[in-house]
Please model this.
Amino acid sequence: MVCGQARALGRQHLFTLLHPSRYILQQLSRADRLAQDHPGFLWRIPDETIASEIKASGFDNRMSATVSVWKRLEDL
Model:
């Protein structure tokens, strides 16, 4: 069992090294979901809006950004 878990973990690290941007996007999506489930969260710019604004501005499509609104600073 431990050997299989170690192999799976090794494959995940290899994937991360070979495809870092995909891994980062997966983690950003996870962080976004966690934030949206938090009681103090109000709103954030949708991913599609960010992507189209970045493209329209002439920036590299590997760039990302986010903006969110919270009830109180303490909620962050």
In short: The helical segments are 2-18, 20-36, 47-56. The chain has a mean pLDDT of 76. Residues 4 and 10 are 10 Å apart (CA to CA). The two ends are 39 Å apart (CA to CA).
